[in-house]
Design goal:
The structure holds 2 protein chains of 2 kinds. By secondary structure, chain A is α/β, with parallel strands linked by helices. Chain A has 21 helices and 7 strands. Chain A has a 5-stranded parallel β-sheet with strand order 2-3-4-1-5, with helices on both faces. A two-stranded antiparallel ribbon of chain A has the order 6-7. The N terminus of chain A is likely disordered. Chain B has 19 helices and 8 strands. In chain B, helix 10 packs across helix 12 and helix 11 packs across helix 12. Helices cover 45% and strands 8% of the residues of chain B. Classes of the chains: A alpha/beta, B alpha/beta. The complex binds adenosine-5'-triphosphate (ATP) and magnesium ion (MG).
Chain lengths: 434, 444
C-alpha cells in the first residue's frame, strides 16, 4: 500500500493522506466557509438582498439572525459578506464594523473598538464627548468628510447580540438602532444570537427602533438529508491534487455512510443534535484515526468517535474513586433516600458508613475519622458534593450542609461498571435502607 | 514497528522517547497525537481534558508539547490573580515582550484579542499554536466572558490555534446557561493498581535491587490503594517510609528474600503513616524524626496539633459547658445539672425534631445565660468573678473554639456555638478530671 503511486500525479499515499487531512481539518476545525451553504438557501438569499440594499442603495436596516449554537449563524453571515464584497462598488464603498458581545463587554470598550475599526483613532484624538450618542454621531460624521459628499454605508455586525442587552441602559443598541431608523447615514445592524427570546431582553425604546426582521436558522433536516450532508462533509473536492486518491476516498465515504452500524451511530447522533458543529466534532475524531496503516475512515473509527463524544463524564470520574470514597457516595445515596433529598452533613454520612461497617461489611475495614474526612473533602473538590449556600464557612466543616450532585441511576450505573467493586459494597448500595 | 509510534510529521525516535517518558498513558498520548495531526494541520479549536488529581493531565500535555517542540504557552489559572497575567503570559510566549508590554494596565479580553490579531498578523502560525490552561475550573470564577472566549479563541483571533483546558471537574459544571462553543472532551482515567505499581516502581533506590523496591511498592499499595490513588501522594509516602522498610536489612535481621519478615516490619508502620503523614497532621520531617526514635512514640494522637492548646482552668470548664450547651437539648439541662430533679422519663421529652442527635446535625447555638448556668453547675470549686468569665469567653471566641452567631432577629443577646469535636473536648475534660460522657444526652 505504502509504495503505491497514483497514475496522474507524483504524490505518494502518505502525501495524499496528508493533503486529505489538511483539507478536511480546515473544514472541521477551522470553520472554513462552505462553497455553498446547504439547507439555508432562502435565509442566505434574504440576508444578501437586505445587505445589498444598504451597500448599494444606501437604505438603512436592522436584522437578527437567530438560531441554536453551532447552527451556522456566523457561517451564514460570513458567506453573505464574502459574496457581498465580490461586488466591486460595494467592496470599495462599504465600511464594516464587527463587534462581539464576548469581547466588547461594555459600551466604552465597544466605542473604542468601533473607532478603531473605522480607522478614526487619529481623528478622534483626545476629544471628550458629552454622551455616547454624541460620540457615535461624530464618528459617523467624520466618515462623510473626504472626497465624497454622500456618506458611506456602515455595516455593524453584533455577534452574541443578547450580551449587548446587558450593557448599562442598552446605550449602544439604542443608538445603533436609532441611527438605523433615521436616514442620515446608511447603516445596517446585523445581530446574531442563540436566544429565541432575545426581543424580551430589549428595553421598550430599543425594541421600538428595531425593524423586527428576524432570520431563523432552525434546521428542518430529516435523517436522509443528514446522512447526505455527512457524506458531503467527508468528500474531497474535485480539485484535489490526486484524482485517483480522491475518487477512492469518496467511494469509501459513500460506502461508509451506507454501512448499517454507521447508520445506527449517526442516527443516535442525529437524535441528540443535528447542528454542523457537533457533527464536525464527531467526524474530526473519526478522521484523526486515519493513518497510512488505516488509510480510510472505517466504521469502527466512527463508532469509537461516537463513544468518545457520548461518554458519560460523571461515570468516568466515579470509576476513578477509591473504594472508601465510593462507600461515602453510597452512604449519601441512602441519606438521600431516607431524608428525601434534604441536605446532610459529613457527620451523618460518616454515621451511615459506620453502620454499614458494623452490620454488613466484610471487605472494608474501619478507617480513622480524619481519613474519612479527607475522602469526603476530595469528593467536594470534585464537585460531586456541593456545600449549600447560606451555611457559613464559620461552622465546623463536619456539620456544613451539603448536597449530592448525582442521582440514583447515575450511582447505580457507575457501580455496575466500577472495577473490582466488592460485593458487599454493591449489596449495600442496592439495599433499600442503609 | 508499531503503528502506535508512528505519526506523520514527527520524528519516530522522538516519539519513542516520548512514550518512554509517559508510561501507562499510551492511549491518551496517541489519541492526543492523532487529534493534533501534523504540526501545521489544524487541530480541534478547544480540547477539554478531565481526570482526577495526578492522572497525568498536565504532565502528559506539557511533555508532549515540549518534547515535540511545538509552539505552546502553558498557564496555570492558579497563578492568574488577574486576567492580565493570563493574557500577558500568552502574548509573551508567542510574540515576545513587545506584545505583552502593549497590554494596557487593566486589559480586557477585547484588548487581548486585538493585540493577538495584530501581532499574529506579523508572525502567522506556521504550526498549530497551543494554549494550555491548567486548573481551568478557576476560569469560571473570573470574568464571565473569559471561558466562552477562550473556548472559541480560534474563531476570534483567526489563527491556527488550539486551546487545551485541564481540570479535575467534569465539563457539565462549566457550561454557561446560554451555551458556548463545546470543546472536545477527553478523559484521563485514574491509574489502576497495576499501573500505579509500574509507575512507582520506576523510582528505585540506588543501593537496593529494583525487585525489592517493587515488592515494597506492592505492600504500600496494599495499605493505601483503598483510600488514595494519587500518584504524587503515594510517591511521597513511598519515599518517606522506605528507610523503615530497609531497617531489618541494614541490621541484618532479614534478607531481601525474607518477604514475610519485611512485610511484618513495615505494614503496621504504614498503617500508622496513614493516620498522620497522609493527613498532613505531622510534617514529613517530624515523621522521619519519629521513625528514628520509634521507642518513645507515645500515643500518636498526642501529635495532633489540637491537643497542645493550653487553656486556663476556668476556660476549660467554660468550653466544656459550651459543648454541653451545644449538644444537649436545653430541656434536659434540669436532668443533668439540678441535684434534685423530678423523675423525667427520657422518652417524655424526646420530641420529634430531637430524634436526630445533635452529634449528627452539629452544634446548636445557645444564649449566654444558659452557658453560665451550666458552667456554674459543673465547675466544682469557688467560682471566678463574672468579669473574668466574660473575658475568657471572648478569648475562646478569638481562639475559634467558640463561635459567636449573631441573628438579625435578636438584637441584644449574643449566641454562641461550641466549635470543637468530641475527641477534643474529651481530652480537655480529662485534664480537669471531668467525666463529660456522663453529662452528654447522647454521643455517637
Ligand atoms: N449549512 C451549512 N453547511 C455547511 N456547513 C455549515 C452549515 N451550517 C453550519 N456549518 C458549519 O458549522 C460550524 C458552526 O457554524 P457557526 O460557527 O456559524 O455556528 P453559530 O451559529 O455561529 O454558533 P454560535 O452560536 O456558537 O456562534 C461551522 O464550521 C460552519 O462552517
Ligand atoms: Mg457564531
Amino acid at each position: 500500500m505504502s509504495k503505491r503511486k497514483a497514475k496522474d500525479s507524483h504524490l505518494t499515499a502518505g502525501e495524499c493522506l496528508s493533503q486529505a487531512q489538511r483539507l478536511l481539518r480546515e473544514r472541521f476545525c477551522h470553520q472554513q466557509l462552505p462553497i455553498r451553504p446547504v439547507g439555508v438557501e432562502s435565509q442566505h438569499k434574504h440576508l444578501l438582498e437586505l445587505l445589498k440594499r444598504t451597500a448599494v442603495h444606501g437604505e438603512s436596516n436592522s436584522v437578527l439572525i437567530v438560531g441554536p449554537r453551532g447552527a451556522g449563524k456566523t457561517m451564514l453571515l460570513n458567506c453573505v459578506l464574502k459574496e457581498l464584497m465580490e461586488v466591486d462598488e460595494v467592496e470599495k464603498n462599504i465600511l464594516l464594523v464587527q463587534l462581539n458581545g464576548l469581547l466588547q463587554t461594555d459600551d466604552r470598550i465597544a466605542l473604542k473598538e468601533i473607532t478603531r475599526q473605522l480607522n478614526l483613532e487619529n481623528v478622534v484624538g483626545d476629544k471628550v464627548f458629552g454622551s455616547f450618542a454624541e460620540n457615535l454621531a461624530f464618528l459617523l460624521e467624520a466618515l462623510k468628510k473626504g472626497d465624497r459628499s454622500s456618506s458611506r454605508p456602515v455595516l455593524f455586525t453584533l455577534d452574541e447580540f443578547d450580551l449587548f442587552a446587558h450593557h448599562k441602559n442598552q446605550t449602544l443598541l439604542y443608538n445603533l438602532l436609532d441611527i438605523s431608523q433615521s436616514a442620515q447615514t446608511p447603516v445596517a445592524v446585523v445581530g446574531l444570537t442563540c436566544r429565541l427570546d432575545v426581543l424580551e431582553l430589549l428595553e421598550k425604546r430599543v425594541k421600538s427602533r428595531f425593524s423586527h426582521r428576524q432570520i431563523h436558522l432552525l434546521s428542518a433536516m430529516n435523517f436522509p438529508g443528514f446522512l447526505r450532508s455527512v457524506e458531503q462533509q467527508l468528500r474531497l473536492p474535485p480539485d484535489f491534487p490526486d484524482s485517483r486518491f480522491s475518487e477512492d476516498w469518496n467511494a469509501g465515504t459513500k460506502a461508509l455512510c451506507e454501512d448499517k452500524s454507521v447508520e445506527a451511530v449517526l442516527r443516535k447522533h442525529f437524535n441528540s443534535s443535528k447542528d454542523f458543529r457537533s457533527l464536525h466534532m464527531l467526524l474530526m475524531l473519526a478522521l484523526s484515526r486515519v493513518t497510512v496503516y488505516n488509510p480510510a475512515i472505517r466504521p469502527t473509527d466512527l463508532l469509537e468517535a461516537s463513544r468518545i463524544c457520548t461518554s458519560d463524564a460523571k461515570a468516568n470520574v466515579l470509576h476513578g474513586l477509591s473504594v472508601l470514597e465510593l462507600c461515602l457516595i453510597i452512604a449519601m445515596k441512602h441519606l438521600n433516600d431516607i431524608y428525601e433529598g434534604e441536605p446532610f452533613n459529613f457527620q451523618m454520612v460518616h454515621n451511615e458508613f459506620k453502620k454499614f461497617l458494623q452490620r454488613k461489611s466484610h471487605s472494608i475495614h474501619n478507617f480513622e475519622k480524619p481519613v474519612v474526612v479527607k475522602a469526603f473533602e476530595h469528593l467536594q473538590e470534585l464537585e460531586l458534593i456541593k456545600p449549600m449556600d447560606g451555611t457559613t464557612a464559620r461552622s465546623q466543616k463536619e456539620y456544613q450542609l451539603v448536597k449530592l450532585m448525582l442521582d440514583h441511576t447515575q450511582i447505580m450505573e457507575a457501580l455496575q461498571k466500577y472495577p473490582q467493586c466488592p460485593t458487599d459494597v454493591k449489596q449495600w448500595a442496592a439495599s433499600a435502607f442503609g | 514497528m508499531s503503528a502506535l509510534l508512528h505519526h506523520p510529521g514527527y520524528d519516530d525516535d522522538r516519539l519513542r522517547l516520548l512514550m518512554e517518558k509517559l508510561p501507562c498513558r499510551e492511549t491518551q498520548v496517541s489519541t492526543l497525537l492523532a487529534l493534533m495531526g501534523e504540526p501545521e494541520q489544524y487541530c480541534y479549536p478547544s480540547i477539554f481534558i478531565y481526570g482526577q488529581r495526578a492522572t497525568g493531565k498536565s504532565h502528559v500535555t506539557q511533555t508532549l508539547l515540549r518534547e515535540l517542540q511545538l509552539p505552546h504557552a502553558v498557564v496555570s489559572c492558579v497563578e492568574c490573580v488577574s486576567v492580565g497575567i493570563l493574557f500577558e503570559q500568552v502574548l509573551l510566549t508567542f510574540f515576545g515582550s513587545s506584545s505583552s508590554n502593549s497590554l494596557p494596565r487593566y486589559p480586557s479580553l477585547s484588548d487581548f484579542i486585538r493585540l493577538y490579531r495584530q501581532f499574529c498578523g506579523q508572525v502567522p502560525a506556521t504550526q498549530t499554536r497551543y494554549i494550555v490552561l491548567d486548573r481551568a475550573e478557576l476560569l469560571r470564577d473570573m470574568d464571565a466572558n473569559l471561558l466562552p472566549g477562550f473556548l472559541r479563541l480560534q474563531e476570534l483571533v483567526e489563527d491556527n490555534l488550539t486551546v487545551i483546558l485541564l481540570s479535575q471537574i467534569v465539563w457539565d459544571k462549566f457550561r454557561p446557561n446560554t451555551g458556548c462553543f463545546e470543546p472536545l472532551l477527553l478523559h484521563f482515567p485514574n491509574y489502576n493498581k497495576a499501573e500505579l505499581q509500574e509507575i512507582l516502581a520506576q523510582d528505585t533506590h540506588p543501593s537496593y535491587s529494583s525487585e525489592l523496591y517493587s515488592s515494597y511498592i506492592n505492600i504500600l499499595l496494599g495499605v493505601f490503594y483503598s483510600v488514595c490513588r494519587d500518584v504524587r501522594e503515594l510517591r511521597h509516602l513511598a519515599a518517606l517510609n522506605f528507610p523503615k522498610f530497609c531497617e531489618p536489612l541494614e541490621t541484618g535481621e532479614a534478607k531481601e528474600k525474607d518477604a514475610h519478615k519485611l512485610w511484618r516490619n513495615i505494614e503496621p508502620h504504614l498503617k500508622k503513616a496513614m493516620q498522620t503523614v497522609y493527613l498532613r497532621e505531622v510534617s514529613s520531617v517530624q515523621w522521619e524524626e519519629q521513625q528514628t526514635d520509634e521507642r518513645e512514640t507515645a500515643d500518636r494522637r498526642g501529635l495532633s496539633a489540637h491537643e497542645h492548646v493550653e487553656l486556663p482552668y476556668y476556660s476549660k470548664y467554660l468550653l466544656i459547658a459550651a459543648y454541653l450547651a451545644s449538644y444537649n437539648p436545653a430541656r434536659t439541662d434540669r436532668r443533668f445539672f439540678l441535684k434534685h430533679h423530678g423523675k423525667i422519663k427520657k422518652t417524655n421529652f424526646l420530641k420529634k425534631h430531637e430524634k436526630t442527635s445533635n452529634h449528627l446535625l452539629g452544634p446548636k447555638p445557645f444564649p449566654l445565660d444558659r452557658l453560665l448556668a451550666i458552667f456554674y453547675s459543673v465547675v466544682d470549686s469557688r467560682v471566678a468573678p463574672t468579669a473574668s468569665v466574660f473575658s475568657q469567653i471572648s478569648s475562646l471566641v478569638t481562639l475559634q473554639l467558640l463561635s459567636q452567631t449573631s441573628h438579625d432577629d435578636q438584637l441584644d443577646a449574643p449566641k454562641y456555638k461550641c466549635a470543637v469535636s468530641l475527641d477534643f473536648i474529651q481530652a480537655i475534660a480529662r485534664t480537669v478530671g471531668f467525666d463529660i460522657l456522663r453529662y452528654l444526652y447522647d454521643f455517637l
